Amino acid sequence: MKFTHSGLALAAIMGLLELAACKTVKFNVDLTWEDGKVAGNTRKAIWSNGQIPGPTLRVKQGDDVEFLVNNSMPFETAIHFHGIVQQGTPWSDGVPGISQAPIQPGDAFLYKWKADAYGTYIYHSHMRAQLDDGLYGAIYVEPANSVERPFSLMTDDQTELQALLNAEKKTQPLIVSDWRLFTSEEILQIQEESGFSSYCASSILFNGKGSVICPGQDHIDDLTRSGESQALGGVSMSDMGCMPPTATRYSRYDFDLSKIPTGYYEGCVPAQGPDAVFNVDPAKKYVSYDVLSMAGSSSLVFSIDSHPMTIYAVDGRYVEPSTVQAINIPAGSRYSVMLKLDQPAASYTIRAANKYANQIINGTATLSYTNKGNGVPTTSSGKPGSSTTTSGQYINELGTAATRGVTILDDNTLVPFPREAPASYANKTFVLNIAQTSTSYGWKLGNDSYPMELEEVEFPALFDPSSIPTKNMISTLNDTWVDLIINVTTSGQPQHPIHKHSNKFYVIGQGNSAWTYSSVEEAMKYIPSSFNLETPQMRDTFQTPPSLGAPSWMALRYHVNNPGPFFMHCHIQMHHSGGLAMAIMDGVDAWPEVPVEYELAVMPTNH
Ligand SMILES: *[C@@H]1O[C@H](CO)[C@@H](O)[C@H](O)[C@H]1NC(C)=O
Ligand SMILES: *[C@@H]1O[C@H](CO)[C@@H](O)[C@H](O)[C@H]1NC(C)=O
Ligand SMILES: *[C@@H]1O[C@H](CO)[C@@H](O)[C@H](O)[C@H]1NC(C)=O
Ligand SMILES: *[C@@H]1O[C@H](CO)[C@@H](O)[C@H](O)[C@H]1NC(C)=O
Ligand SMILES: *[C@@H]1O[C@H](CO)[C@@H](O)[C@H](O)[C@H]1NC(C)=O
Ligand SMILES: *[C@@H]1O[C@H](CO)[C@@H](O)[C@H](O)[C@H]1NC(C)=O
Ligand SMILES: [Cu+2]
């Protein structure tokens, strides 16, 4: 395209006008490694400005972000901005060994990126297994005024619409996660010494608050699912609700039970921590939460008693609103939900229950109506003013529907708003197998396991792509469409929440059978109903389909348009640490030139 001089000047002025509204937001986190109380027990943890979770970063779409990490901890770290595309700024993706060298103790690092897309994101440690030590916090990018909201699909009434828009403007993060009595380094060591993988938590947290609940062996026995008792062959789940390491389950691996400390999978000791309370004002009619999971080993089903949720955005992108009673939130996914505050003024239980077979565990928090008696409509069924209602419970302690008529969101019914379709053909297909290695905690994605030592390479992939062995990466060409077939090669695996860095993928197909095709095009000749190319979901995190009784697969399609070294991995922390990860060298033919300030592994500290 060619501009005349005056056209250019006009374009420049328009650009300036738009720029005037955008600003540079500076955000500093100081990371410390200190003893502190979480869920009633004191242990060492990572505090971001003294908090777990870290402070929320709120910006407006179009803003530039300067995120300064001050590492006051006695070990290395790096922070990733989960879901942020990093368009043109691959050096700020925060993956040690890929986009940067680890931030040394006492050093600082300045991440610079543009909040070009609206929505809910997360910052979290991407170094070793530090996420499990509490280094995470929410990011909210408020949509630009020009972005069309999906709320007119919910109501025609102008007052209602305004209430929905107001609720969205005040949306708040609601982070569910799990917590352990051991630090992540202790866990990595216990795994190696005992041979027994870590998949148990002691607490479920809501915005960092929760308790250790010991429901008792009898109660655990009552709740044990038939699949679990079958796998255990007569043995009980532990008093923490966990699958014990029985000889039958571990016959393939070397293991030494004497190396397992109490509290790792059994030995529940109750501890009282703070309760998370979410106050809502019914006069506002609606409240919005960005519900996201930073769990390490749990897949949490989330619900709020008596309050159906209207899902209006997922992984930071609007969807056509869909109303359900509960959602399953795999680690790394984000769901923006709207609640109608039309119930009698009272307190309602917020629930999160693990649905994986590894452990029976749940946690609760409270939704509390303030401004009682003001603006509360009397519903036909409602008893006004009662203190705590016990009715209206949607899910049970196993994360399944408590009564008939309860709908748990099926993500595959979600349709992006506005709708957007991928290219109908891919230029390149990669089949990436997921399998376990020879240890109970070792995993591979593609042809090999991704060793954690690659976080420490001398020249991160951004500066030298050959630092990463070819068996641990895939390479793509810029401006091509790529299919990633995530091939769960064996039955009985947990559903892996697969997270891809940089831009989103379209979830174009999935199945609960062996993948035996060379491409999506070929598979569509045999199993067309397993695909959706018209209105597929747009995600950056999506879990593999269940593999009960048979292997499973999913097909993810994305457009390579942001050259640089990125990453893809399972977001179950111990699967990631165990090697279920790979590097994605996007656009190797258009590799970016790195700004000189990032060529220095570490930025100079100056505040
Ligand atoms: C940065 O960390 C150093 C120690 O590593 C500490 O002395 C300093 O106060 C920290 N600065 C800020 C702004 O937190
Ligand atoms: C689930 O949470 C409730 C409320 O905190 C608690 O009473 C119950 O024991 C928990 N059940 C399990 C299996 O953790
Ligand atoms: C990718 O595939 C599309 C459609 O099949 C084609 O038009 C395009 O030329 C291909 N690009 C490359 C780089 O091969
Ligand atoms: C895995 O190895 C095979 C055989 O060498 C190769 O054809 C394939 O491309 C590799 N897969 C990936 C994802 O690199
Ligand atoms: C990479 O491809 C995108 C289009 O998908 C294009 O906009 C961009 O300019 C390309 N980058 C380079 C460095 O060629
Ligand atoms: C995908 O997994 C299936 C088992 O489910 C296996 O038969 C097939 O060979 C795998 N595909 C590739 C390309 O490795
Ligand atoms: Cu996994």
From TrEMBL:
Entries under InterPro entries matching the protein: Cu-oxidase-like_N (IPR011707), Cu-oxidase_2nd (IPR001117), Cu-oxidase_C (IPR011706), Cu-oxidase_fam (IPR045087), Cu_oxidase_CS (IPR033138), Cu_oxidase_Cu_BS (IPR002355), Cupredoxin (IPR008972)
GO biological process: pigment metabolic process
The UniProt record lists the keyword DNA-binding: no
Keywords: Copper, Glycoprotein, Metal-binding, Oxidoreductase, Signal
Gene3D superfamilies: Cupredoxins - blue copper proteins
Keyword Electron transport in annotation: no
Example of a GO MF term: copper ion binding
Family, per entry: Belongs to the multicopper oxidase family.
Name by which UniProt lists this protein: L-ascorbate oxidase
Source organism per UniProt: Aspergillus saccharolyticus JOP 1030-1
